[in-house]
Amino acid sequence: MRTYPDRTIAMRAVPLAMIAWLALSACGEAPPIARTDLPADRPANDLAATLTVRPNFVVILADDLGYTDIGAFGGEIRTPHLDALAREGLVFSNFYASPACSPTRAMLMSGMDNHRAGLGNLAERLSPNQVGQPGYEGFLPAQVAALPEVLRAAGYRTYMTGKWHLGLEEGNSPAAAGFDRSFALAPSGASHFSDMLPVRGPGRAIYREDGRLVESLPEDFYSTRFYTERLIEYIDENRDSGQPFFAYLAFTAPHFPLQAPDESIARYADRYDEGYDALHAQRLHRLEQLGLIQAGIEPYPRQRSERPWSELDAQERQVSARRMEIHAAMVDDMDRYIGRLISYLRDTGQYEHTVIVFLSDNGAEGRWLHQGLTPLKAWADECCDNSLENMGRPGSYVMLGANWARAITGPYRMFKGFTTEGGIRVPALLHAPALVAEGRQVDEPVTVMDVMPTLLDLAGIGHPAPHFEDREVMPMQGRSMRPVIHGIGTVADEQGFAMGWELQGKRAYRLGEWKIVWQPAQAGWAPWPSAVRVDDWQLYHLGEDPAELHDLSARHPEKREELIGRWAEYARRNHVILPDRVGDY
């Protein structure tokens, strides 16, 4: 069992260069991080005592949010609070996550590749040859020094509410990973209301508060509101402690089942009656206006198995539009409650020295229940009333579907679960009033693995590897975004951006603007909407073809071979175990 009593972390001395970087803040000043007159070998616990003003951190994670869903990324959904953070902070146009939720969460909490951090695959979808193997535990293993426990040992208060999805048991709950207070949904999803309806039934969804099982939820429970308000309560309990805090707000919105209060859905009544094809064109145009994509990009086409909006009859259109209305309501509500958190921070004088990071865990969910989610479809048919009148209410269970997912993904290929751009490129923002004077767009690729190194860097905390408390731990693989925040450098090394992916046999590797993709043959996904060659590598140039439509393997065989070799090295270094059975998800 993984348990973490309060103990002092052995930290490295703060490098002088770190202090110099702070002085280069775009606004001309920054909070002091630590005294610089300490000897390099000063004991870590003494160093922790000298830290003066350190920033608070708020990390907000949306669940299955589309790349274009918020206003700052081209969406029409009302997201004024996130848009304000974008105007005043950094907008990351090339931010990468994993193709799916729990692997991304492992990367966020560890600063390392998901195959090292215990989520080489979704715990629910392990192949037989992956069961019991290191890196496939389904939770953060002891060799990971998790972000909250490293911050807590350095003097931070740590709080978490929302979806955890990094273990179901108390021994691998948020309480065991370093959170002082937590209220967490343990599995991948659930009803957004008080009925505790699981994503896969029967039974009840598992919630834990401070590690202990929750037997029931308040009658007025609505996930987005409850998680935000509970997090504010946690922060406020220790507001006078003088300690900085790390708060992790992991919304389950807009993950399926799509649900929201009636009044929230009503705000989007009739908004999507023009259909998904019109919305796709509108959002692409807005992306061009914002400079997030180049004009004239050829977008990824509709799946061949899906029909254009013009071919749907009136009843089909009404049902389809309602799905998008609910999705929009969930995103709107998420922004609304983010605004409540921001108001609390302002009212209590904590806003100016709080760093806020916002991102999605992967691309939009674009599957129908019968495509890779067969057990969930059977449960949805059994548990729920999915009539038009009940869609979005407690006791309903619907998903967005492939066409709306394409509409909210921009020009990119496919969606959640795929290592193509639609599955791994996500909207992301960073807001830091003391460090960023005015908003700007960052086009350099960065990754979810870079969040933990960045927060530790901004706090003046060294990662404890190779030893933390009473165990050996692995070093982080991500890099601090501090040079990018200050506009004085890059995250990538001299060879440029490089990153590999693998999930359930789907593979990819990006080097600069070049990318290779391996799509295994999967039941339920043929015929493909373009010339996708399954069970083989394809080569794309993202600068010219961000939608990954035109395979350049024949024209650039040497580049293809180079990237194949790099992916093989990535897989070796991160102990990737390719599944001996490729599923349909």
Q: If you had to describe this structure to a student in words, what would you say it looks like?
A:
The chain has helices at about 15-25, 45-50, 80-90, 100-110, 145-155, 225-235, 260-265, 275-290, 315-345, 375-385, 400-405, 420-425, 450-460, 480-485, 555-575, and strands spanning about 55-60, 90-95, 155-165, 180-185, 205-210, 210-215, 245-250, 355-360, 425-430, 440, 445, 465-470, 470, 500-505, 505-510, 515-520, 535-540. With about 575 residues, the chain is an alpha/beta fold. The chain folds into 2 domains: about 15-485, 3-Layer(aba) Sandwich (Alkaline Phosphatase, subunit A), CATH 3.40.720.10; about 500-575, Arylsulfatase, C-terminal domain. Strands 1, 2, 3, 4, 5, 6, 7, 8, 9, 10 and 11 form an 11-stranded mixed β-sheet that branches. The protein has a 4-stranded antiparallel β-sheet with strand order 14-15-16-17, covered by helices on one side. It has a two-stranded antiparallel ribbon with strand order 12-13. The longest helix has about 35 residues, at about 315-345. Residues about 5-50 have low confidence and may be disordered.
